[in-house]
Amino acid sequence: MIFYQNYNIMKQEEINFKDNKDKFLGGYIKTMNILVINCGSSSLKYQLIDMSNESVLAKGLAERIGIEGSRIKHEPTGKDKVLIEKDMPDHKAALEIVTNALVDGEIGSIASMDEISAVGHRVVHGGEKFSASVIIDENVMKGIEECINIAPLHNPPNIMGIRACQELMPNVPMVAVFDTAFHQTMPEDSYIYALPYELYEKYKIRRYGAHGTSHKYVAYRTAELLGKDLSELKLITCHLGNGASIAAIKNGKVVDTSMGFTPLEGLIMGTRCGDIDPAIVPFIMEKENLTPSEVSDLLNKKSGVLGISGVSSDFRDIEDAMAAGNHRAKLSLEIFNNAVVKYIGSYAAIMDGVDAIIFTAGLGENSKEAREEICKYFTYLGVELDLEANDMRGKERVVSTENSKVKVMVVPTNEELMIARDTLGLVK
Ligand code: ADP
């Protein structure tokens, strides 16, 4: 084994998984371990969480599935990280290596697969069918398949991941946790677009929102930290990462959210344009001679702060370029901040007030500058940022002063834990 970029590399020929039983007091231990799976088209993220204390036993990422050079970055808690280089033609092959790694005598975390009580799957789109997490059966699979229509890029890999797990762990209960489910509480007047109503009836074109699992985790955690019941709070949760969305949560229910029929709507993001005049779309298509999929690519992958700045989709690069005097980088950040401010302001209005504004995800958790810039627009609501408390990264905390009428908080998101909690709740 050699060491590379913090990972011990295991070459294909070195992999010889042996199970871990001998090390664990000789045998079967009934545990509360939940395996959380999040499948992309060529990736598989996983976390094994011990729910007796919500600690992560191991986590990792299988990359380049079905592509040459596939590998798994496996991180067992308390042991060296391992990079496993092995061909993985499909998600089942990846999952086989992941599960072998989890029970391996050297790099594993559990004695045998019997110690996985259930699997929680992240599923991107649950349409109008799923307003909560569910135990997966064939009926549920059919429902997820029906949503492919509105999530053609995301639901198919999620389905592949579930099928692979079902084949490898046929007796383990599986739960689907939908990214759209938390937003299903939105009232009709938030989710219906001002288009001919028949389009909603025919194609289910409406606002669904996304990042629901993150908004839910952050909302519950905020209530816990404030020592209040979620049902008595008005919250605005700001998930500001490469993808960014905001939700207005009143009495535990989402009343509005910035992402729409797809994640393209709302804030400007790393590479997504967010809200624009829809008339621009046919205009660009005509002028640039673009097909629907080409224009979709332009709006989703070449716009946002990347499109405006021409520098990068990564906010750190943008901040660096701005510091070096790049005007378009500065402009892109200003436009991003403006969008966040407009959504927070309008959500405070639709909820008739707000008790707490919460920042999460890469930028929200780490950029004191972004929080400072955004919060200075809300003195009229009584927001008073504590600049010292705000000058920290990635830590759960209140960043407003004692006197601030609205609490401002940083709550690092934990979608995997939310998925594991939902899963445990359903299978217990
Ligand atoms: P996603 O899951 O959508 O990829 P993340 O929540 O991981 O997004 O957030 C990634 C974004 O957060 C990147 O654009 C990155 O630049 C930004 N980010 C992370 N750390 C910082 C920081 N210290 N300052 C500013 N931006 C940051």
From TrEMBL:
User: Which EC main class describes this enzyme?
Assistant: transferase
Highest taxon of source: Bacteria
Where does it reside?
A: Cytoplasm
Site (Transition state stabilizer): which residue positions? 211, 272
For this UniProt entry, what's an example GO CC term? cytoplasm
The entry's active site is: 179
Keywords of this entry: ATP-binding, Cytoplasm, Kinase, Magnesium, Metal-binding, Nucleotide-binding, Transferase
Name the positions where substrate binds.
122
The note describing how and how many cofactors are bound reads:
Mg(2+). Can also accept Mn(2+).
The positions annotated for binding ATP are 45, 239-243, 314-316, 362-366
Gene Ontology molecular functions? acetate kinase activity; ATP binding; magnesium ion binding
Keyword hit for Nucleotide-binding: yes
Q: EC number(s)?
A: 2.7.2.1
Pathway listed for it?
Answer: Metabolic intermediate biosynthesis; acetyl-CoA biosynthesis; acetyl-CoA from acetate: step 1/2
Q: What cofactor(s) does the depicted protein rely on?
A: Mg(2+); Mn(2+)
Q: Which reaction does it catalyse?
A: acetate + ATP = acetyl phosphate + ADP
Any single GO BP term: acetate metabolic process
**Binding positions (Mg(2+)):** 38, 415
- UniProt family annotation: Belongs to the acetokinase family.
The record's subunit annotation is: Homodimer.
> What is the role of this chain?
Catalyzes the formation of acetyl phosphate from acetate and ATP. Can also catalyze the reverse reaction.
What is this protein called in UniProt?
Acetate kinase
Which species does the entry assign this protein to? Andreesenia angusta
Show the taxonomic lineage: Bacteria, Bacillati, Bacillota, Tissierellia, Tissierellales
